[in-house]
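User: structure tokens for Endo-1,4-beta-xylanase, please.
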Amino acid sequence: MTITKALGLVLSLAVGALSVPYGPEQPAPLVARQAGAPHWYKYWANDQAVVEADDLDGGLFTVEWNEPNGGNFVIGKGYQTGFDTKFNYSGTFRPGSNSNTYLALYGWTYGPTSEYYVMESFGVHHPADNPNSTCYGHFTSDGGTYEIWDKYNGRIHQLWSVRTTRRVGGTITTGNHFRAFEAVGLELGRHGEMIIGIEGQWGSGAATITAGVPPATRVVESATPTTRTQVSTRRDTCTASIDIS
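Assistant: Done. Predicted tokens:
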């Protein structure tokens, strides 16, 4: 089923309803549980977005975009409620040479409300390239090193776990990232959606991703660029080691 922007408006309203905070509650303890298939589909796009997506069988989805400045979309597959699991994914991610696009495990928690990303790869914009970003340290998970960052995007508290080598495909042990956030004082509330997805803000590109299926061949990784055009004016302690045990 091909989803175009016209239908996307209807879907985005539905998804937006799901994303409304449910009010303050005590979050349940994070525990690992048996995972079902990560086939729940999310499509959200603003009025400026130029994007087409296919919601295909199982965990498979495709996205093509040609975003003007001001466009924004989030598309992916996963679970309506996040939890501690080994989230496998595979596929291709091809942002254009001037595309501000992310490939990430993406989700929300409520009470407090936070938007989190486990950043696996991205186009031209590092999410920490912001004068209001803070780095809290690093930890290892799933064969790589991740840095923990946060910043406020308007009223939204954004949490970032950024892999220091970009990859497309592998396993994300979600609970390790949740524990890393909380170990540095970034509180998580009750879990909402959790997907492997594409977020695009400008530029063009294409992606084909399968949630729940690990790569069939070895994934080649490349170093994540560390050059920033906007240096953080807050603390930058990425050299600190975070204990997630």
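User: Anything notable?

Assistant: Residues 3-28 have pLDDT under 50 and may be disordered.
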